[in-house]
Amino acid sequence: MYKTLIRPILFQFDPEKVHHFTFAFIKAANKIPGISALIRRMYTVNDPRLEREVLGLKFKNPVGLAAGFDKDARLFNELSGFGFGFIEIGTLTPKPQPGNPRKRLFRLKEDTAIVNRMGFNNGGVEEAVKRLKKPSASLRARGILIGGNIGKNKVTPNENATDDYRKCFEALHSHVDYFVVNVSSPNTPNLRALQDKEPLTKLLSGLQNHKLQTANHKPIMLKIAPDLTEGQLRDIVRIVKDTGIAGIIATNTTISREGLASPVKKETGGLSGKPLKDRSTEVIRFLHRESGGSFPIIGVGGVHSPEDALEKLEAGASLVQVYTGFIYEGPGLVKRINKALLDR
């Protein structure tokens, strides 16, 4: 019903406006008695065979919602009913920022893809913390984990980036289960320069040392771009080992436009969706092989079917995330992936 009836209607309107409308609709619907339970029955697969022990955490199932969908932690309680094993909020920055000027979100229907140049638009980490302090009791009871994706403010120079990431880390520490350091978005000027070996080692070492001083250690992961060379990916493997961070999320959006059919491909920003699938899987396979499987990888990029998810898991990912596939395929995608995992 989603792809034949609901999606064609939603896709008639501006994607950012649709995003806000959908949030409001889901929020309102879940306030109706019995609706949240009905959604869980429709979309959730409960089976202990789906559980995964990763990052020292127990995931109810290996399918998560990637960062960027619920940037400000406004809907994570309601979204948990769609069958996810974990939900990643953010990217959050220390101070609120509006992001880039609109229009900044584009559908590439011919390519089953999205281009965004949002620019870390968010209300700031402290506002998100206020919402995270009031999760429904059933969220934790149902074993849904929350990740915190953190970044730096646009106005913060790269040499001071560690301070921004540390502020977000400290603010979120009591409210999330793991952290993701985002230095790979193409939509904040010079942010990707932090992926270079020296600044990245400095940033991650600083956060890791800070983590070790906390009472309850939370794992830190790094989210990388799909546009890195093999040499840069080898550096990433070495940096993970040298700094002791927990693992990698592969991958963020790409700046490549190779092979696209949509006229919207000329828009600047990060590309997500089906065109990213193969490159994301290549990066996962390369990292897994080069590291000897010594750290976990969360695979994301172009997951639009159970087969796509299985491909990433077979390439070496421990868990997978969806975002653009969730928009194009609908909420039933998570259930189909989990059922496919049980049928393997």
From TrEMBL:
<feature type="binding site">
    <location>
        <position position="71"/>
    </location>
    <ligand>
        <name>substrate</name>
    </ligand>
</feature>
<feature type="binding site">
    <location>
        <position position="91"/>
    </location>
    <ligand>
        <name>FMN</name>
    </ligand>
</feature>
<dbReference type="InterPro" id="IPR005719">
    <property type="entry name" value="Dihydroorotate_DH_2"/>
</dbReference>
<feature type="binding site">
    <location>
        <position position="149"/>
    </location>
    <ligand>
        <name>FMN</name>
    </ligand>
</feature>
<feature type="binding site">
    <location>
        <begin position="252"/>
        <end position="253"/>
    </location>
    <ligand>
        <name>substrate</name>
    </ligand>
</feature>
<dbReference type="InterPro" id="IPR005720">
    <property type="entry name" value="Dihydroorotate_DH_cat"/>
</dbReference>
<dbReference type="InterPro" id="IPR013785">
    <property type="entry name" value="Aldolase_TIM"/>
</dbReference>
<feature type="binding site">
    <location>
        <position position="251"/>
    </location>
    <ligand>
        <name>FMN</name>
    </ligand>
</feature>
<feature type="active site" description="Nucleophile">
    <location>
        <position position="185"/>
    </location>
</feature>
<keyword id="KW-0472">Membrane</keyword>
<dbReference type="GO" id="GO:0106430">
    <property type="term" value="F:dihydroorotate dehydrogenase (quinone) activity"/>
</dbReference>
<feature type="binding site">
    <location>
        <position position="223"/>
    </location>
    <ligand>
        <name>FMN</name>
    </ligand>
</feature>
<feature type="binding site">
    <location>
        <begin position="323"/>
        <end position="324"/>
    </location>
    <ligand>
        <name>FMN</name>
    </ligand>
</feature>
<dbReference type="GO" id="GO:0006207">
    <property type="term" value="P:'de novo' pyrimidine nucleobase biosynthetic process"/>
</dbReference>
<dbReference type="GO" id="GO:0044205">
    <property type="term" value="P:'de novo' UMP biosynthetic process"/>
</dbReference>
<dbReference type="InterPro" id="IPR001295">
    <property type="entry name" value="Dihydroorotate_DH_CS"/>
</dbReference>
<keyword id="KW-0560">Oxidoreductase</keyword>
<comment type="function">
    <text>Catalyzes the conversion of dihydroorotate to orotate with quinone as electron acceptor.</text>
</comment>
<comment type="pathway">
    <text>Pyrimidine metabolism; UMP biosynthesis via de novo pathway; orotate from (S)-dihydroorotate (quinone route): step 1/1.</text>
</comment>
<feature type="binding site">
    <location>
        <position position="182"/>
    </location>
    <ligand>
        <name>substrate</name>
    </ligand>
</feature>
<feature type="domain" description="Dihydroorotate dehydrogenase catalytic">
    <location>
        <begin position="50"/>
        <end position="342"/>
    </location>
</feature>
<feature type="binding site">
    <location>
        <position position="187"/>
    </location>
    <ligand>
        <name>substrate</name>
    </ligand>
</feature>
<keyword id="KW-1003">Cell membrane</keyword>
<comment type="similarity">
    <text>Belongs to the dihydroorotate dehydrogenase family. Type 2 subfamily.</text>
</comment>
<comment type="subunit">
    <text>Monomer.</text>
</comment>
<feature type="binding site">
    <location>
        <begin position="67"/>
        <end position="71"/>
    </location>
    <ligand>
        <name>FMN</name>
    </ligand>
</feature>
<feature type="binding site">
    <location>
        <position position="302"/>
    </location>
    <ligand>
        <name>FMN</name>
    </ligand>
</feature>
<dbReference type="InterPro" id="IPR012135">
    <property type="entry name" value="Dihydroorotate_DH_1_2"/>
</dbReference>
<dbReference type="GO" id="GO:0005737">
    <property type="term" value="C:cytoplasm"/>
</dbReference>
<dbReference type="InterPro" id="IPR050074">
    <property type="entry name" value="DHO_dehydrogenase"/>
</dbReference>
<feature type="binding site">
    <location>
        <position position="273"/>
    </location>
    <ligand>
        <name>FMN</name>
    </ligand>
</feature>
<feature type="binding site">
    <location>
        <begin position="116"/>
        <end position="120"/>
    </location>
    <ligand>
        <name>substrate</name>
    </ligand>
</feature>
<protein>
    <recommendedName>
        <fullName>Dihydroorotate dehydrogenase (quinone)</fullName>
        <ecNumber>1.3.5.2</ecNumber>
    </recommendedName>
</protein>
<keyword id="KW-0665">Pyrimidine biosynthesis</keyword>
<dbReference type="GO" id="GO:0005886">
    <property type="term" value="C:plasma membrane"/>
</dbReference>
<keyword id="KW-0288">FMN</keyword>
<dbReference type="Pfam" id="PF01180">
    <property type="entry name" value="DHO_dh"/>
</dbReference>
<keyword id="KW-0285">Flavoprotein</keyword>
<feature type="binding site">
    <location>
        <position position="182"/>
    </location>
    <ligand>
        <name>FMN</name>
    </ligand>
</feature>
